[in-house]
Design brief:
Chains A, B: Its main location: secreted. Chains A, B: Keywords: Copper, Disulfide bond, Metal-binding, Oxidoreductase, Repeat, Secreted, Signal. Chains A, B: Its cofactor is Cu cation. Chains A, B: It is found in: Secreted. 2 copies of one chain form a homodimer. Chain A has helices at 5-22, 171-179, 339-348, 396-401, 532-536; strands spanning 25-37, 44-49, 58-61, 65-72, 81-84, 110-116, 121-127, 138-144, 157-166, 191-194, 222-225, 230-237, 243-248, 253-258, 261-268, 270-273, 278-284, 293-300, 309-315, 365-376, 379-384, 387-389, 434-436, 440-442, 447-453, 466-470, 475-482, 501-502, 504-507, 511-518, 523-529, 540-545. By secondary structure, chain A is mostly beta strands. Chain A has 3 domains: 16-144, Cupredoxins -  blue copper proteins (Immunoglobulin-like), CATH 2.60.40.420; 157-351, Sandwich (Immunoglobulin-like); 356-563, Sandwich (Immunoglobulin-like), CATH 2.60.40. A 6-stranded mixed β-sheet of chain A has the order 10-9-12-17-14-15, with no helix packed on it. In chain A, a hairpin with an 8-residue loop joins strand 18 and strand 19. The longest helix of chain A has 18 residues, at 5-22. At the A-B interface, strand 1 and helix 2 of A face strand 1 and helix 2 of B.
Chain lengths: 567, 567
C-alpha cells in the first residue's frame, strides 16, 4: 500500500532466488535384485533395493529435485517404481506406473527417475508392475517443509513407521493363483511387518533352516524416546491386502497429517490406516519410562488370522533395556468388523483450519463407479460399472503422445450405473463382466467428482474395504456414507468447507466415498484400489487430461509395445 | 554316360521342383505362461507353453520351415527360446539365445521365430534366458527324413522320450542362491521326469495338498509296443544338472542316431545321455508280452540322491494292463561313479559308415580351454582359461551389426592356458578369477579345433562331467581322453576317419574332449556347458564368424541394451 511497488518486486525476486538457491538435488543410486531375507524370521526371496527391504528412505526438502538411478539386476524380470503421493507435475513419465506412464525397465537396464517433491509430507514408493510390490520393493519418502515454512504443530523428534503384510509364497504363485480358474487364493498374510520386521508365529513348526527366530533381520524395531518430549510418528501402509489398525500402547496419538496434508488435530487411541495412506501423529512421551511399550499393527476389516505385528517403544534413561519385550500383551486393536469405528475416523479427518484449501464449489463432471466383484470365464475379477480393467500393452502415455490409436480401446468406459433400485447388499444376479483398457478423458482444467460405491461381493453378506489411490493428484474427500449413494440426495451433504486433501481414501463396506479433483496435471493417471490383488483383478480406471501439453517424452520409457523397436 | 546331358538337367530340375513343392511351413502359436503343475505329483508353478510342460513336440520334415509365434504371457518376466540343434543357417537372429542373438521377449510381446530344419533328426527346444529352462519351458523337435531319403535303419514305429530333472524350488531361488556368497546350493533334484512326469519319493511326507500322488499329471507315461515289432525311441535330455543313464528293462538298445547324425550301430544295455544330447535307439519288442517293463532314468556322474525316474513299456495284446506297474524293481543303472563305463560309450559313438562326413584334415586354429571352478569375491564361478563368462547387456549380434563397440569387451579371451606341468588333479592354488564378455572372432570359413580340458573342482578329489553345446554348428568329435591333454601328443590320436558330428558332447571327469568345426555359418554363437547353473556361473564362450555376411537384422530382436529406444 504505502510500500513502493519496486521494493515489493525486489522482495519477491530475492525470495524466489533464495528458494532456487535452497532447492537441492538428491541423488540416489539403486540396484534392484533378489536376495534371501528373513523379514519375519522365515527365509524368503525378496526384491530388494541395494540389498534391503524396505528400501532406503528418501529424505528431501520441499522444492528439491529427487533423482533415482535405478539399475535392474533382476535376472529375467522387469521393474517399475511408483512415487506414491508425488504428483509429478511436468514429469508424468516419471510416475513409474507400468502400462500407464512407462514401459518396464529391463534386466541390465538403468532408468533414471527425476521429479520435484513440491509439497512437504509423508509419502512412499513401491513397485508398480505385476504384483512386485508385495515382493518387497517399497520404502518411504519424507519431505521436510521448506525452511521458514511453519507447520501447524511442534515436536521434538520424529520416527518413521512403514507397515506391511507379508507372505511366504512368491508373488508369482500369488498372481498365477489369482488368474487360475478356480481361483487359488494365497490367503491371509503370514506376518505383519513394521519397518520390514515381523515374527512368524509358527517359526518353530517349520522345517530346519527355514525359520530362524534369532535372525537379526527380524529383530523387532526399537523406537527410542526421551521422557517428556513430543514425537512425530510418520506412518505409512504399503500392505498388499490388509487394512490395519496401528497403536502405540499407553500413548494417545494426535493425528496431524494425512497424505501430505495438515489435519485438524484429533486424538485417537489407535489409528486405522489403509494401504497407500500415510499419516503423521504426535505422541507425548509421558508414561512410566522404566518399562517398554508395544507398537502394534492389527488386521481390521477382514477377519484376521495373522498375529499382531509388533515393535517396541523404549524410553531413554529408563530402567528397561530397549530390547526387553514390554511386560504386557500387545494391543489387539478394535473389533475387526467394527466398520463404524473406522468410518468415524475417516469422517473425522478434515483439513487443518489454517491450511484449508477450499474445493471448487461445483464439479463439471461426476463419475459414479459401482465397485463389484465379478466373473469372466469362471475367473474372479473386480469391475467398475461392470467393466474390469486391464492394462494395455503399450503404455497410455506413449500411445497417446504418438497417436497410436490401436494401442487401447478408444471407447470410454461408462460414467455411471443403473443406480436406481440397485441393491448393494445383494449378490449380483449376473456377475459376468467384460474387460476393457479404455480410459476416461477429462477436459483439461475441469473439476471432476468421483463417487465410489461399494457393494456386496460374490459371497453373500460380505463387503470389503477398498483403499482407492489416485496418481498425479490430490483430491478433496467430500463425503462418506454407508448404503447406496443417491445422486439426488447426497451431494447436498458434501463437506465443501474443510475437506481434507488426500491421494488415497477408504471406501468402507457397503459404503460410498465422494471425492473431487481438478484435472490440471497434464498426463495419464491411474486411479485404482491399492489392494494389489484387486488392481491385478481389474479394480481400477485411468484418467487422461491435457496430454497434448505433456512435453516430449523421454525415449527411455518407450521400449515396449507398439512404439518399441519390436514393432 | 550315354544319357543326353539335357535329360539329366531336366531330371535335376524336376527333382528340385519336387523338393520345393514338398517343403512345408509348419505354423505354431504358443502362449507362455505360469501354471500350477504336478509334474512329480508336487504342486509347483511352472513356465508352460499353451498350458503344458513339456511343450508340444514340433514335428516337421527335412527342408520345412518352422514358424513359431511366441506370445509372452508371463506377468513381469521376459523369455527367449533356443532351438537346440537347429543350425539357423541364414537366420542367426532366430537362435533364441538372450544376450547373444536377441533381446528377450517382453511380457505382452509377440516374437515370431522362423527357421528351416535342414537336417532330419531329433532335436529339442528350451528357454535360453536366465535359468528359465529349468522352470519347465522345453520340448522336442522331431524332423523326419525327406521323402525318398533312406535312413540306414528300419523300424515299425517310434516313440519319444524327453528326460529332465526337477526341483521344487523356483528358478529364482536357485539363481539367487548361486549368486550369493556363500553359495546357497539348491541341491540334487527332487525328481527325474520322463516326458514331464515323475513321482516325488516323499509325497506322503509333505503338507496336505502340496503333493497328490493320484494327480493325472504325474501318472507314468506308458509306451505301447506290438509284439515282434521294432521301435525307434528318440531320446533327449534337457536336464538342468544331471547326467543320466536311460534303460528299457529287458530290452537291448541299438544306438543309431546322435544329435541328428547317423551312428555306426552299437548295442547297449543302457544309454548314458548328457544334458543337451539326443539319441535314437532301436529296440525289438521281443520279450514276454504278458508283463510290463520299466523305462528307467538314473543319475550318473554325481552321487545320486534322487529316485529313479520311471515310465512303463507295455505290449499290445499282452495280459498285463498298461497301467500295471512292472513286477520288478526299476533298473538302477551303472555305478554312478563308473567314469570309464561312460567314457567307452562316448568313444563308441562314431559315424555310420554310409554317412561319414569326413572332417577337414587339419585346423586353422586350435583353442585349448581349461575348465575350472573359481571364485570371485567369495562367489563360486566357472571359468575357461581363468575367465568367467558374463553375457553383455546388448546382444552380440545386435552390437556387432550396429558397430556398438562399447557393448562388450573388445579384447579376445585367451586361446590357451599354461598347460605344461598344470596339475589337473589338484585344487587350484589361486582360484580367483575375472569375468569378461569378450568373444572369439573366427575367420569365416576357417577350421577350428577346440579342446576342452576338465580339472579338479574347488573341493579335493572332485571333477564333474560337463556337456558342452555349440550353437549354429555341428562339430566333429575327434577324440576323448582322461588326464591332461598334451597338444604335442594327442592330436595324433584324433579320429579323422569316421568321427561323429554332434552339437553337444561330454567332457568326462579329469578328461578332455577334442572337437573340430568349420566356421561357415555367419552369426554369433554361444558354446557352453549345458548344465544350466554352470553357464549361469560363467562356463561358456562365444564365437563370431562372418557377421558381416548376416542379412539385415529384424527390428524385433533389438528391444534392449544400447540399441533399444531406451538409449
Amino acid at each position: 500500500m504505502g510500500r513502493p511497488p519496486r521494493l515489493l518486486c525486489c522482495l519477491f525476486l530475492s525470495l524466489s532466488l533464495a528458494a532456487v538457491a535452497r532447492a537441492a538435488t538428491r541423488h540416489h543410486e539403486w540396484e534392484i535384485s533378489y536376495q534371501f531375507k528373513h523379514s519375519d524370521c522365515v527365509r524368503k526371496l525378496a526384491v530388494t533395493i541395494n540389498g534391503q527391504t524396505p528400501g532406503p528412505t528418501i529424505r528431501a526438502t520441499q522444492g528439491d529435485t529427487v533423482v533415482v538411478r535405478v539399475k535392474n539386476s533382476l535376472l529375467t524380470e522387469n521393474v517399475a517404481i511408483h512415487w506414491h503421493g508425488i504428483r509429478q507435475i511436468g514429469t508424468p513419465w516419471a510416475d513409474g506406473t507400468e502400462g500407464v506412464t512407462q514401459c518396464p525397465i529391463l534386466p541390465g537396464d538403468v532408468f533414471t527417475y527425476t521429479f520435484v517433491v513440491d509439497r512437504p509430507g509423508t509419502y512412499m514408493y513401491h513397485a508398480h508392475y505385476g504384483m512386485q510390490r508385495s515382493a518387497g520393493l517399497n520404502g518411504l519418502i519424507v519431505v521436510a517443509a521448506a525452511p521458514g515454512a511453519a507447520e501447524p504443530f511442534a515436536y521434538d523428534g520424529e520416527h518413521s513407521v512403514l507397515l506391511n503384510d507379508w507372505w511366504h509364497k512368491s508373488t508369482y504363485e500369488q498372481a498365477a493363483g489369482l488368474a487360475a480358474a478356480p481361483i487359488v487364493w494365497v490367503g491371509e498374510p503370514q506376518s505383519l511387518l513394521i519397518n520390514g520386521r515381523g515374527r512368524f508365529a509358527n517359526c518353530s513348526g517349520m522345517a530346519a533352516g527355514a525359520c530362524n527366530a534369532a535372525h537379526p533381520e527380524c529383530a523387532a524395531q526399537v523406537f527410542a524416546v526421551v521422557p517428556g518430549k513430543t514425537y512425530r510418528f510418520r506412518i505409512a501402509s504399503v500392505t498388499s491386502l490388509s487394512a490395519l489398525n496401528f497403536e502405540i500402547e499407553g500413548h494417545q496419538m494426535t493425528v496431524v497429517e494425512a497424505d501430505g496434508h495438515y489435519v485438524k488435530p484429533f486424538v485417537v487411541k489407535n489409528l486405522n490406516i489403509y494401504s497407500g495412506e500415510t499419516y503423521s501423529v504426535l505422541i507425548k512421551a509421558d508414561q512410566d519410562p522404566n518399562r517398554n511399550y508395544w507398537l502394534a499393527s492389527n488386521v481390521v476389516s477382514r477377519k484376521p488370522s495373522t498375529a499382531t505385528g509388533t515393535a517396541v517403544l523404549s524410553y531413554y534413561g529408563g530402567r528397561s533395556s530397549p530390547r526387553r519385550p514390554p511386560p504386557t500383551t500387545p494391543p489387539t486393536g478394535p473389533a475387526w468388523n467394527d466398520t463404524m469405528y473406522r468410518f468415524k475416523q475417516s469422517v473425522a479427518t478434515v483439513a487443518h483450519p489454517a491450511h484449508v484449501e477450499p474445493p471448487p464449489p461445483r464439479a463439471d463432471r461426476a463419475i459414479l463407479l459401482l465397485n463389484t466383484q465379478n466373473k469372466i470365464d469362471g475367473r474372479i475379477k473386480w469391475a467398475l460399472n461392470n467393466v474390469s480393467f486391464t492394462l494395455p500393452h503399450t503404455p497410455y502415455l506413449v500411445a497417446m503422445k504418438n497417436g497410436l490409436l490401436g494401442a487401447f480401446d478408444q471407447r470410454p468406459p461408462p460414467e455411471t450405473y443403473a443406480h436406481r433400485g440397485y441393491d448393494i447388499y445383494a449378490v449380483q444376479k449376473n456377475p459376468n463382466t467384460t474387460t476393457s483398457n479404455g480410459l476416461y478423458r477429462l477436459r483439461f482444467g475441469s473439476v471432476v467428482d468421483v463417487v465410489l460405491q461399494n457393494t456386496n461381493m460374490l459371497d453373500a453378506n460380505k463387503s470389503e474395504t477398498h483403499p482407492w489411490h489416485l496418481h498425479g493428484h490430490d483430491f478433496w474427500v467430500l463425503g462418506y456414507g454407508i448404503g447406496r449413494f443417491d445422486p439426488a440426495v447426497h451431494p447436498a451433504t458434501y463437506n465443501l468447507r474443510d475437506p481434507i486433501l488426500k491421494n488415497t481414501v477408504a471406501v468402507h463396506p457397503y459404503g460410498w466415498t465422494a471425492l473431487r479433483f481438478k484435472a490440471d496435471n497434464p498426463g495419464v493417471w491411474a486411479f485404482h484400489c491399492h489392494i494389489e490383488a484387486h488392481f491385478f483383478m481389474g479394480m481400477g480406471i485411468v484418467f487422461e487430461e491435457g496430454v497434448e501439453r505433456v512435453a516430449e517424452l523421454p525415449r527411455e520409457i518407450m521400449g515396449c509395445g507398439n512404439k518399441s523397436n519390436g514393432h
